[in-house]
Amino acid sequence: MIEVAEAEGIIDGVRLEVETEKLDVSDTAGMILREPITLDRDLPPFDRVMMDGISIQYDKWEQGQSVFPVEGLQKAGEPKQLMDGNGHCMEVMTGAILPGNVDTVIRYEDINIQQDGKEISAVIQKGPKAKGQNIHPTGTNRKRGERVIDQGTVLSPAEIGVAATVGKTRLNVSKVPEVAVVSTGDELVPIGQRPLPHQIRRSNAYTISAALRELHMEAELFHLNDDRIEIAEKLDKIIGQFDLMILSGGVSRGKLDYIPELLEQKGVEKRFHKVRQRPGKPFWFGQSEEAVVFALPGNPVSTFSCCCRYVLPWLKKQLGMRKRNVLRAQLTADYTFKKKLTYFLQVTIDINNDGIMKATPVKGKGSSDLVNLCRGDGFLELPEDRAHFTAGESYPLFLYRSL
Ligand SMILES: Nc1nc2c(c(=O)[nH]1)N[C@H]1C(S)=C(S)[C@@H](COP(=O)(O)OP(=O)(O)OC[C@H]3O[C@@H](n4cnc5c(N)ncnc54)[C@H](O)[C@@H]3O)O[C@H]1N2
Ligand code: MOO
């Protein structure tokens, strides 16, 4: 039996081949970018008018001119106009390119427009504070050629907007691997079926595939009954078809717990079996040339805690995510767990006024109590070398819900 950090290290050493695919930019939110994004133009790309109003030559105002004949209108989306008249102004709209021969913009709020016959003039009520006022000069946000988003970034709406502004209609992102999620056990029936008294529904497969959805991964669901021949045949097919398999159940000491033995028989090399943790002690992990296999213990809370603690962080890394943030939260109450095992404590999370995550234990009825997962937000990892944990101490947090 190995400890949690060792299990994590072994899993971390295993690579999953992840391809790159090109998708329409609008389909990439939440996906992992596989190319850097550089600016194809300065930002802003032209001297941009920032307020609706008029544009003037500042020197004229400084020399005492306060009435400016209006020469025309520069709208947003129109090519740059050159002004004829010295001492004239041009009306300008927010987002327009600054006309030629002017250098300062004054808001409509600070002028009066007056008409005398055909001649329209702007009378300045509140003069500009400085030359260049209300103009956003070319390239003052960013310069053309600057690398603004790194490869490995998870694409949020912010990155999608930048990709769109540099004209990326399609983006290279990590292609999510196909994954087989396999439940095992004779007692398990499809969830649409009414179970007999000795049966239960196959909920784990749904929990796991929902967790994978967070990474945009689609799982294909399989089920294996506790039958050596059936398991052997189906494993052959699944291993041949998928690079990644996540199984639940059939990995402890039961007479019908065939999974570890048959996986090895099919060429999946055991990398470890059993981790000093609760829940999830009988966790089995292995790999063959074709596939990486997580065989998680069947109790629903064990399946889910192993998924949150090992499978998802590893997958994020394989998909090329740049950094892995391990969150931490502070216990709000003392907690005692005497067994020499790492304990994944179910907690609710609140963020206090100082922005600190506070973890309050939610007491459940053990590793079969999947309803208790609905009361919590995540698992707090309490190390095995301690038995007493004190309020105010902080520990790694594996969150399964956004706060
Ligand atoms: N003699 C021992 N017995 C057990 C040990 C042990 O060390 N020695 N470990 C216990 C621990 S801890 C766990 S966790 C379980 C895990 O066992 P398995 O991985 O073999 O899981 P199963 O026996 O197949 O199932 C356990 C439990 O979970 C239910 N289950 C399984 N799959 C699903 C599913 N897809 N959806 C819903 N529920 C599922 C199953 O019906 C069982 O009740 O072993 C202990 N035993
Ligand atoms: O690890 Mo088992 O998951 O304690 O029930």
UniProtKB/TrEMBL annotation:
Pathway note: Cofactor biosynthesis; molybdopterin biosynthesis
Molecular functions per Gene Ontology: metal ion binding; molybdopterin molybdotransferase activity
Single Gene Ontology BP annotation: Mo-molybdopterin cofactor biosynthetic process
Domain named MoaB/Mog: residues: 180-317
The organism's place on the tree of life at top rank: Bacteria
Keywords associated with the record: Magnesium, Metal-binding, Molybdenum, Molybdenum cofactor biosynthesis, Transferase
SMART domains: MoCF_biosynth (SM00852)
InterPro entries according to UniProt: MoaB/Mog-like_dom_sf, MoaB/Mog_dom, MoCF_biosynth_CS, MoeA-like, MoeA_C_domain_IV, MoeA_C_domain_IV_sf, MoeA_linker/N, MoeA_linker/N_sf
Catalytic activity: adenylyl-molybdopterin + molybdate = Mo-molybdopterin + AMP + H(+)
SUPFAM superfamilies per the UniProt record, alphabetical: MoeA C-terminal domain-like (SSF63867), MoeA N-terminal region -like (SSF63882), Molybdenum cofactor biosynthesis proteins (SSF53218)
Entry EC number(s): 2.10.1.1
Cofactor names: Mg(2+)
Entry GO terms, CC: cytosol
Family per record: Belongs to the MoeA family.
Function: Catalyzes the insertion of molybdate into adenylated molybdopterin with the concomitant release of AMP.
Xref: NCBIfam families: molyb_syn
Protein's name according to its UniProt entry: Molybdopterin molybdenumtransferase
Species whose genome carries this gene: Fodinibius roseus
